[in-house]
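Q: Here's a chain of 99 amino acids. Please give me its 3D structure as tokens.
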Amino acid sequence: MKPDMFRRPVSILVGLGYPAEVRNVMDAYRHLSEWPTSLRDSAHAIALKACGAALCGEIEAETARGLFLAFAEKHDLLAPDTNMFAASRLRRDRDPHVQ
């Protein structure tokens, strides 16, 4: 695995609510760099600085991932977990008493 790759991608909503997977530090850095200036806050600044440090090899990619995840949570960017929906549907299909 490349040193800038995340162990697990961060699924965020982009554009008109389309899910996208942020798989590495560079993807996270790009997303943060494109974030509107008027919406930038301390969570953004911390995540951006962490991604920059990870790209320079100063911190681990997973540390940057955690800070990017915190930024995404704060700004309601996290995509719903599709595995959770699939498991729920599978349970309903197997047991008609589950709603």
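Q: Can you summarize the key feature?
A: Residues 35 and 56 are 21 Å apart (CA to CA).
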